[in-house]
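batch_manifest entry 22 of 60
target: Aminopeptidase N
source organism: Streptomyces umbrinus
requested by: lab member K.T.
priority: normal
notes from requester: please return tokens only, no post-processing; we will run our own comparison against the previous entry in this batch. if the run fails, retry once and flag.
--- input ---
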Amino acid sequence: MSVLTRDEAQTRAKLLDVHRYQIELDLTRGDEIFDSRTVIRFTTRADGDTFVELKPAELRSVALDGHLLDLDTLSLDENRLPLKDLTAGEHELRIDATMRYSRTGEGMHRFTDPTDGETYVYTQLFMEDVQRVFAAFDQPDLKAVFELTVTAPEGWTVLANGITELQEDGRWRAAPTPLISTYLVAVAAGPWHSVRTEHRGLPFGIHCRRSLAPHLDTDADEILDITRACFDRYHEKFEEPYPFDSYDQAFVPEFNAGAMENPGLVTFRDEFVYRSAVTDTERQTRAMVIAHEMAHMWFGDLVTLRWWDDIWLNESFAEYMGYQTLTEATRFTDTWTDFGIVRKAWGYDADQRPSTHPVAPDPEAVPDTASAMLNFDGISYAKGASALRQLVAWLGEKDFLAGINTHFARHRFSNATLADFIESLAAATERDVHAWADSWLRTTGVDTLTASVTAQPGEWTLTLDHAGSRPHRVTVGVYDRDLNDSRALLLRERYETDIPQQPAPEPRPGPRPALVVPNDLDLTYAKVRLDEVSSETALRGISDVPDALTRAVLWNTLRDMVRDGDLAPAAYLETARAHLPEESDLAVVQGVLSFAAAQVADRYLPGHERPAALATLTSLCRDLIRRTEDGDHPGLRLIAVRHLIDVAAQPDTISAWLSEGTVPGGPELDPELRWRILGRLAVLGAIDDAVIDTELVQDPSATGQEGAARCRAALPDPVAKRAAWDSMFTTDDLSNYLFTATAQGFWQPEQTDLVRQYVDLYWNDATAVAARRGPAIAEAAGRWAFPAYAITPETLQAGEQCLTESTPIPALRRKLTDQLDDLARALRVREA
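--- output ---
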């Protein structure tokens, strides 16, 4: 597939004004293809040539201004249909084509539910996949009105950006949209189970596969309550009303992202329809995604970026508003703790790799759509949201929202750039927002704030050494030991300070604190290094800190120190073993256990130390399970059970759970826990194909199919490994989700000798499958199929050779670059 360059987009935008699309889709043509007929009405401002994007299985006819073009002489080069010798004025282009369904979550994805045989289709058109569904001038700044008609099988419901109605002729017609970008057009069709309501005069709906209906119904009130609360809160913040005629949320199968902000029809991965027990933090994550996508209705859909260098304007804003609005409007009032320990770590990691980039890169750094796709990462989301949070702390929320509302008013139903955004903010404040933007949005890397404390009788002084270039406003937390309970820490005070510290910091009254925490409320984006006394306090008493967000800051500090070689991995495990059994915040427990197992035990410790690390984590999880026997902390117990399964070195305990169908004292094993146990037993060689097949009979769902694929790939058997490898890299039959599940099972730390031969095969095979199957599979091959546990200099050398001597497509090249940097870091940590 060809990529659109920024220069081409600018040239086309100068030439064209696109008015309206009329799109007719026929979804009754069978399992492989559908019909797509498109009429585009546009004006050219001058005489000239241009092109329209289209990737057809068959191009049947093209008519320009009523004249059929000769298909024999029409060159469809790299999915571009040339339009030559256009004269200034109005034009009409009609294209009739047959298109292919996708199995990779791109374009028009088709899925047949193995539970009941029902079929569903939905679009994901982001960046450059519109051409897989209909002909278009596909770039974000050529907005138009879209009229959509869909012919669907009997019994199906069709959802779209606007309200849809079934016509007398059997076709579904969607209300015309306002001006929107091509990549935001959406269709979702199938025998959906729907829950509908109305709020503030608008129809609201949530939709899922029929086989998930009982699970959606169970959570429908919660999902709709979150939706209404966020909708109302945004209308308190934003002066511009919701700009579309309805609000549907469709939970769709095999979705590559978390969700997509299509106006009026947000699509979510249907794992958010929980069919097994989940923690309250997982419910909070779903709620945050709902809030995030709704924020896009204004920032992204109403006002859209002009070119993809400003993708952060969409994602950073929605990320920040999602967490903040959830905190303000719902029962989830501690969302920033989860952000700090999960999302922010994602940003810190991305920002320390060679592939880092500014939150707002220079336009020249995003020359085409392929390079733009690479910026959907922890920087555009987590770092950008952190920057906006720091901006609000510095600017004040009142001025921030005033600037945002100015931005909406100036650019509604149009496009905008970073410069436009900054000008809108500058109009609301006397502060130098342009200088702030240069420091925060145009630079790369993570600043480090290193604390040192000096004490004199009756006073103490904090000095913060600043490695980096950005200004920061931070809150400093000052803690003392409780005189009545030596294990407890009490907050003495919090105060704000600006960095760089000018003039020199002044002494503060009182004795030297036991713990001083820079960035105590996590309002800025920077690594923190504690002073020597505070560091010792944190290692010995992190569970004594009263506030969960402060504990998250401290755990992140310890995590950074391990990654930088400043704290031994074993010391991190010891701290987790000592203090996590006392932790009450679910996000903190989940985040620390995940890092301790997936990074410390599996990658940062040498292989001969891993059994002891697993034993430590097993003991920790058992303590958490014992602590929650009273049933008062089901979420904490579920996290502990999941992680005990994952780190089990022997099969006896989890095999007994599987046989009995329950963990003693609960929880009973639901499908997620059963497949989790089977996955670990497969790794340990304690089950065979027959056991997997039996379980699949009991759970033939899509999730069950993925669980079975994961288990089969994890079996410590050469034949099973070869079959799994061939299914990923030879046959091309796996959907995006089944490819990922197979890859997740294939590489295991316990099986490095068994799969050693595949490390050498990976580089060529991954490059080839990415070239054949495109960016979605390239992403999965780079993320999940990478030999992450082959932590040797030889693996690093082979990977670097692949990057220099082969030509992996950009999506795979980026993943390999990041994976190899993580591998090099693991080697450094082992050597520290």
